[in-house]
Amino acid sequence: MTAATNIAQLQAQINTQYATLSKRLQQVASYVLENNQSLAFDTIATIATQANVPPSTLIRFAKAFEFSGFNEIKKLFRQDLIEETTSYTDRARLYKENNTTSLEKPLPILQEFARVNSEAMHQLATQASEQQLTLAVNILSNAENIYILGLRRSYSTAAYLTYALRHVGRKTFLLDGLGGMFDEQASMIGTNDVLLSISFSPYAKETQVLTESVSQKGAKQIIITDSKMSPLAAWSDVCFVVNEGKVDAFRSQSASLCLVQSLVVALAFQ
Amino acid sequence: MTAATNIAQLQAQINTQYATLSKRLQQVASYVLENNQSLAFDTIATIATQANVPPSTLIRFAKAFEFSGFNEIKKLFRQDLIEETTSYTDRARLYKENNTTSLEKPLPILQEFARVNSEAMHQLATQASEQQLTLAVNILSNAENIYILGLRRSYSTAAYLTYALRHVGRKTFLLDGLGGMFDEQASMIGTNDVLLSISFSPYAKETQVLTESVSQKGAKQIIITDSKMSPLAAWSDVCFVVNEGKVDAFRSQSASLCLVQSLVVALAFQ
DNA sequence: CTTTAAGTGAAATAAAAATTTCAATTTAAG
DNA sequence: CTTAAATTGAAATTTTTATTTCACTTAAAG
């Protein structure tokens, strides 16, 4: 055996050797497998206390795995943290600095999309309001029929939402304007129904017209859009403002999709 | 002024005081604003070298901002890293431990979806192969017409892909089976065309039948699916296996959407 | 020009952290 | 049981890291 050069390797080695280790070394092994954070940041003394062993045992553990000292193990975990976080936070700047060259190959584009989407997810989770979500779920739950509206860019999200809602047993209709019957479809919306509209800049005109006319019928409205200034916001009972990630001028959809899916699952769990 | 208790505060203080700082302290200030990683992990000596100041200047800097020493500043940055990473990596276990209660309210569901999606993004970015992506982009680029197939669960992704490809000027057709004309639509696929199919378990039967028949016509095929064992994989020129996140039994779509969007943007940049 | 205050950096010191040592304890083998 | 080998942990030591000191430099005020 030779000293591991990354966490995955080390973890594999620990697993295979676990049974052959002494009692105290097993304690350390368990701790090492389960406390990545602590390993990266805490001092040997702290780690020793938390794992209920004397500091010297940590050094013995390290040597049992061919390291020169426990500090080598700590370095491994710090390195891992650096890689993990640079790939999703500080890497932004790196991309921007040399995106003239890098954004022309598919893999960097994919990685950049993955990064901005991940960031958008984080933002969505942080900014979402419990109150709004609950209200939206209640409205959907009490509605007789659910109508979904999303045109052009938002069509795919609307289509997904329709599919998912039907799967959890809700009467759901997608206003797709098929056969030129947009108005006819919309005229079916009644007082006990709800209209969920998805619209991003540039806001489709049909969506604006429809949300306004529906609000006069007394049906409930839920809006998913990209700005508080959106022309739709005014007519809604609940309005979700979603910040999508983008690469260059290409906006993503992942955050809206995530929101929409969460609503459906929450509805299913009610 | 009193010592900052988090990075944001410290950064704000640095910004307002920047002009009043001495030359060397400004150097440190710049370094502190731009090198979060280094601040969390490196020793004072290392940081001093990288910022081109003697170590004592770092301590002076810290004291200028009311800290007892520079180590206090390092702790701030470490704390921040801990919080950032626990929110998206170690939190998994926490969720699993008490998901019996938590997955019944909308906000935790949303947060859990955000987390698994973020993870799926990370995985996608890590596992994607440059070679496959380039090949796929080339096939799309050389195709006369692009046909998109995605039924049921995959329909929304297929719809988005169709929308996006048309926006970057490709002749694209969505095989939606509208008007019961699935076979008629499919029969238009010619030798110089490409069929991009998206299919997840349970794989729609129509998709399987179509991919097989198209492969006999000599058209190129690109597949996006969720397993190497997928019945579609056999017929493809390029096959992307995407690992989607899921909450309970509800699978997400974000990773596929991200992949699809990356392909379109890469194509646009060609 | 002084003069004085503020700023700077190399080297010394202090503090903290990691590692080693060694006597004590436990375990396994005869 | 007895004995040898392995394991353990408190304390000592070494090494690393952070902080302070003080002579020197620079810049500003009179």
Q: Features of this protein?
A:
homodimer, 270 residues, alpha/beta, Arc Repressor Mutant, subunit A, Rossmann fold, two-stranded antiparallel sheet, 7 strands, DNA-binding
Largest interface: A-B, 63 and 63 residues
- Point out poorly predicted stretches of chain A: none
- CATH architecture verdict of the largest domain in chain A: 3-Layer(aba) Sandwich
Q: How many structural domains are formed by the residues of chain A?
A: 3
- How many strands, what sense, and barrel or not for the largest sheet of chain A? 5 strands, parallel
Shape of chain A: elongated
Q: Could you characterize the architecture of this molecule?
A:
Chain A has 13 helices and seven strands. The longest helix of chain A has 28 residues, at 70-97. In chain A, helix 5 (55-64) packs across helix 6. The first copy, chain A, is an alpha/beta fold and 270 residues long. The radius of gyration of chain A is 26 Å and the shape is elongated. Chain A has a five-stranded parallel beta sheet with strand order 2-1-3-4-5, with helices on both faces. Chain A has three domains: 7-78, Arc Repressor Mutant, subunit A; 86-125; 129-269, Glucose-6-phosphate isomerase like protein, domain 1 (Rossmann fold). In chain A, strand 6 (246-247) and strand 7 form a beta hairpin. Chains A and B meet through helix 3, helix 6, helix 8, helix 9 and helix 10 of A and helix 3, helix 6, helix 8, helix 9 and helix 10 of B. Chain A binds a DNA duplex (30 and 30 nucleotides) through residues 22-25, 43-45, 53-60, 69-71.
